[in-house]
Amino acid sequence: RKLGAGLDDLVPNSSLTHSRLKGILVGLRAEGEEGKQLEALTSLCELLSIANEESLTAFSVDSFVPALVTLLNAEYSPDSMLLAARALTHLADVLPSACAAIVHYGAVNCFCARLLTIEYIDLAEQSLQALEKLSHEHPVACLR
């Protein structure tokens, strides 16, 4: 029993994850409220970093990816761009089926733009990692 104590907080269950994901999505879409967006991005990155495909059954790729791509273009906030890139990278790693949506919503062009004009080295490195993960599932999209 002691070994399993506290693991419930680390390993998300589906009902907790669903309500948590709804809150995160609301935060991502909070235009003009950078603090809420950063908090939501941080939570999403943490969740995706420990998630697996089974724990993300409630994850709506078509809701999250456009919001993340929008934040990837948030020139006013380097932290938002970095965390959005990190979330998309984690998502491509944990949920390979999400790669199609990531490509569809235009993230490849955003990642390439971050490499063509390197203003923030962390963002450029994260963009490169994301492109590498996407290239496994969609190599042609990464060559355009």
UniProtKB/TrEMBL annotation:
Alphabetical list of InterPro entries matching this protein: ARM-like, ARM-type_fold, HECTD1/TRIP12-like, TPR_TRIP12_N
Keyword Lyase applies: no
Gene3D superfamilies attached to this UniProt entry: Leucine-rich Repeat Variant
Keywords: Transferase
GO molecular function: ubiquitin protein ligase activity
Catalytic activity: S-ubiquitinyl-[E2 ubiquitin-conjugating enzyme]-L-cysteine + [acceptor protein]-L-lysine = [E2 ubiquitin-conjugating enzyme]-L-cysteine + N(6)-ubiquitinyl-[acceptor protein]-L-lysine
Single Gene Ontology BP annotation: protein polyubiquitination
EC numbers, comma separated: 2.3.2.26
E3 ubiquitin-protein ligase TRIP12-like TPR repeats domain location: 14-144
Keyword Oxidoreductase: no
Domain of life: Eukaryota
Pfam families reported in the protein's UniProt record: TPR_TRIP12_N
Signal peptide bounds: none
PANTHER family: E3 UBIQUITIN-PROTEIN LIGASE HECTD1 (PTHR45670:SF1), E3 UBIQUITIN-PROTEIN LIGASE TRIP12 (PTHR45670)
Protein's name according to its UniProt entry: HECT-type E3 ubiquitin transferase
